[in-house]
Structure formats: C-alpha cells, structure tokens
Amino acid sequence: MFSFFSKPDTRKVLVSGIKPTGRPHVGNYFGAMKQNIAFSNSGDYRSFVFIADYHALTTVKNKEELSKQTVEMVAGYIACGLDINKAILFKQSDVPEHTELCWIFNNIVTVPYLMRAHAYKDHEAKGKEVNAGLFDYPVLMAADILMYGADIVPVGADQKQHVEYARDIAGFYNRAFIKDNREYFKMPKELIVERVATIPGIDGKKMSKSYGNHIELFCPEEELKKTVMSIVTDSSSPEEKKNPDENNIYNIHKHFLSTEEDLLLRAKFENGGYSYKQAKEDLLETIFKWRKGKIDIYMRLVKNPNKIYKILNKGGRIAKTEAQKRMKEVRKQVGLDL
Ligand code: TYM
Fold it and tell me: How do residues 179-225 score in pLDDT, each as one tens digit?
C-alpha cells in the first residue's frame, strides 16, 4: 500500500492479458500463464495481469458466456498458482481508459498499417467477416501494454506481432506529441520462451480455442479423457520405434515433465513397444496428476464467483488509478485537457 513515506516502486513492469473466450487450455498455460505466474510471484516485477474482455467482444456475442468465461479465466489463473497479493489482477473493461487511449492511438496509425496484421489477414484469407473491433485489435492491445509502461510482455509466439505493433505505436506517439524527443511511452519487449512458443493442439496445429483442437486444463474428467484419446496419430504399430519429435502426444506431454521424466518418455517412443493408446493414457495420467489440488481450487472459485468479483474489484481499482494518471498526462500532451 502506498503511503506518504513509502518509496516509489522502481521495479520493472510486466503486462499480460488473456481473452475470456473459453476455459484456459494447455497452450495458454505453458505459452504465457506459467511465465506470468512465475514472474509475478517472484515479486521482482510490478505485474498487471488482466482478462481482456473488450478484446473478447470481437468474437463473443453472448453476455452469459462472456461473464462465465471471465470467471473461469480468473479461477484458472489462481488455481495455477498466481499469487493475487503479488499481481494486479483485473478485468480490462473495469478500466475503460484502455479504450480512450486506443482511440487516441487510432489517429496515429493508418489503415494500410493495420491491414498488415496477421489476425486480420487470416480472417480476410478465410473469407470471414471482419468487424471494426477485430481490425482495431492491435491498437487496443498497444493501449493495454503502453498504459502501464510495460517492460516485458510474456506471451506465446502468436502475439509477437502485436507487441511489435505496440512498440511502433509508442514511437508514432512519441514523435507526434512529445516535443523534446523524449521517449514518453517506453518500448515494451515480448517475452517468448522458445520451447513453449507454440504449443501444438491435438491435431498438431497450434493449439487454439478457435481451431477446436485444445485441451482444457480444468474440464470434467470424461471430457479430458475424450480429448486426449482423440489426439491425432499416424498408423505406426505399437512395436515400431517412433520419433518423439514428430509425435503429437509427445509434443504435448513433454511440457508437463521434468528433464529426467522427459528423457524417460523419449526413450519409450524411441525403443518401440510403446503403443499410442498407452502413450495417450500416460499423458492423461500426467495431466490428472498435474491438476490434482488445482482443480479443487478452480471448482471452489467458479462456484463462488463473489470471491472473484472482489479480487477483480480490488485489482481494477489499482489499475484504474494508474490508468487515470496516464490519461491525465496523455490528454494534456494531445491537447484535450485545456
Ligand atoms: P489469448 O487469449 O489468445 O491467449 C493468451 C495467451 O496464451 C498464449 N497462447 C499460446 N502460447 C503458446 N502456444 C499456444 N498454442 C498458445 N495459445 C495461446 C497467447 O500467446 C497469449 O499470450 N491478444 C491476446 C490477449 C491480450 C494481451 C494484451 C496479451 C490482450 N491485450 C496485452 C498481452 C498483452 C490474446 O488473444 O491472447
């Protein structure tokens, strides 16, 4: 708690968001959540972790779904170990200043520049309708990141371009509105851990809720079993030796393992006599073991959303205070504050 006598907080700043478009999955966890939790819990960073519900609106058009999934994401983060006393955990829409900053940024980016964004191009290529929110997605994300002066943004590889956009937009803004060449908005850096940059899904493509190839961390047991047993494999017989690096089951399983366990698993694939059925059952067991204890925390929180609302309220108030300070300066710089 800040008091008159307390020193200013000089720690580096971490900012990371997750969209409440479903329950957290293995890709979210290893690609981003695990790093966010470790960095936040270390106490070495001023950590802003938020549920990107404004961003989710680009695809979710059902209020019950959006609020349920928001609760599930928060519960997932806490169940996975995020210490809520070490991170400012909040809901993006509780700090509408993000959209205000986004609007200001909208006026310094061009349409052709936004047309180069991967997410936009993918949608276009698939002939999907692109709403204006989706088109503007990277600008809102830049506002999320720059609002709090992020030094690091732990994310999976799919978000790399978005952090590059945030850096660009920081530069556009500084050049447009800051007279003395000062770097007002700091350049954020993506933090991508190579080994977990792109976790594959059950079909070997990048794991994603939108591809429906994801393994949820906290789904009911039967559902988890069904998903794991449906991991796509080739037609090798149980006796055949298999290359673990080309195997979907191994490429998911390895992330849950210590170095020693990983070596043992690799050997099973390489030596032959390890059926895909057995490999899937082993993965399932590993996931059950991993989530033991965590799932109880998750279920308790999901059943008691009042606790989650309180946590979000507290985090939202702290984030809002920061955002208001930022916007006071920004409004002055652009000439909105007379
Ligand atoms: P979202 O909700 O799609 O995913 C949340 C985080 O999970 C990572 N991730 C993965 N990492 C590795 N392999 C995968 N298969 C995989 N799938 C998902 C994502 O890279 C992400 O880090 N635009 C963001 C949300 C956001 C945000 C921000 C992030 C909004 N504002 C500001 C950082 C900073 C998104 O859609 O994440």
Answer: 988 999 999 999 999 999 999 999 999 999 999 999 999 999 999 99
Supply the residue whose CA is at minimum distance from atom 28 of ligand 1: 17
Pocket test for ligand 1, best of 13, 15, 16, 18 (most atoms within 8 A of CB): 18
**Are the CB atoms for 77 and 30 separated by under 8 Å?**
no
Q: Which CATH number fits domain 218-294: 3.30.559.10, 1.10.240.10, 1.10.10.10, 3.40.50.300?
A: 1.10.240.10
- Predicted TM-score (pTM) of this structure: 0.96
Which of 28, 88, 164 has the most ligand 1 atoms within 8 A of CB, as the residue to mutate? 28
The boundaries of every CATH 3.40.50.620 domain in the chain are: 12-199+304-334
Which residue lies with its CA nearest to atom 26 of ligand 1? 17
Mean of pLDDT values over 310-331? 98
Report d(CA 189, CA 166) in Å as an integer.
9
Locate CATH 1.10.240.10 in the chain. Answer: 218-294
Beta bridge partner(s), residue 289: none
Are the C-beta atoms of residues 75 and 68 closer than 8 Å to each other? Answer: no
pLDDT in tens, 116-149: 999 999 999 999 999 999 999 999 999 999 999 9
